[in-house]
Task: inverse folding
């Protein structure tokens, strides 16, 4: 299927590895040019070089790497200094640390809101008018399955990402945007086989005293699909949401969790 996004420009945040890289790779495969943003220069440059060589090949798609912290004004300025207009924006930032709500002061909450609510909103604000003027735009926010099923120790993430979800629900359905060729959706990952999940499982193994492989097996057994997701299949769903064919799909929370969420809605 031709997704109709060849020649489009995409901004992908947190793109050096994991789910962000999966999205960048899928978009480049479809012929989109991608500005990849991440904080770690070495990993980012290596990933960008691989996409240029292995994925883009001789295609006209361009791959640009910008080392920056997208959650800061300086980081966003660095990104927009490289390119102002984007047809596709994939927002993504690492989740706040787990813990007890009794330990989180105002600074912890502001940091979580900056990364997981306000930064996506600012990126949309900076790119939306250009999308509307061109009559095409796709925004995909990578959030979390915790938006559907909050996790007690992830209160900072639950709060910040739920705030973004509520904001997007109204924005995506506003007549100006819904009739302007622009869609805005959220992708909610469950457990995917990424470095972040590996670190989480290593921590669980240390706390429980169980072997890491036992922790991994137990967590997989709790998922109906009996496995963790891959960055490649996550990226494929992201690319579809950015496609010409997905123009009637907006304001939605797309849950990718192997069936782990038990509800009907």
Result:
């Amino acid at each position: 299927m031709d997704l109709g996004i060849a020649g489009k420009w995409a901004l992908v945040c947190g793109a050096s590895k994991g789910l962000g890289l999966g999205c960048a790779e899928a978009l480049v495969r479809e012929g989109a040019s991608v500005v990849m943003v991440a904080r770690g220069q070495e990993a980012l440059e290596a990933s960008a070089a691989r996409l240029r060589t292995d994925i883009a090949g001789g295609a006209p798609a361009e791959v640009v790497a910008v080392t920056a912290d997208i959650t800061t004004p300086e980081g966003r300025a660095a990104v927009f200094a490289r390119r102002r207009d984007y047809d596709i924006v994939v927002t993504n930032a690492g989740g706040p640390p787990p813990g007890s709500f009794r330990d989180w002061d105002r600074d912890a909450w502001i940091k979580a809101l900056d990364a997981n609510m306000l930064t996506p909103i600012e990126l949309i604000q900076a790119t939306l008018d250009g999308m509307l003027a061109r009559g095409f735009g796709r925004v995909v926010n990578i959030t979390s399955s915790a938006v559907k099923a909050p996790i007690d120790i992830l209160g900072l993430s639950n709060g910040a990402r739920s705030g973004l979800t509520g904001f997007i629900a109204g924005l995506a359905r506003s007549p100006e945007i819904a009739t302007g060729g622009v869609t805005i959706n959220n992708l909610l990952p469950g457990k995917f086989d990424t470095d972040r999940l590996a670190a989480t499982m290593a921590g669980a193994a240390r706390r429980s005293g169980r072997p890491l492989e036992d922790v991994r097996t137990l967590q997989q057994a709790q998922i109906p699909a009996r496995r963790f997701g891959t960055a490649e299949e996550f990226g494929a769903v992201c690319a579809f949401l950015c496609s010409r064919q997905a123009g009637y799909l907006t304001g939605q929370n797309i849950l990718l969790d192997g069936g782990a969420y038990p509800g009907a809605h």
Remarks:
- The longest helix spans residues 106-134.
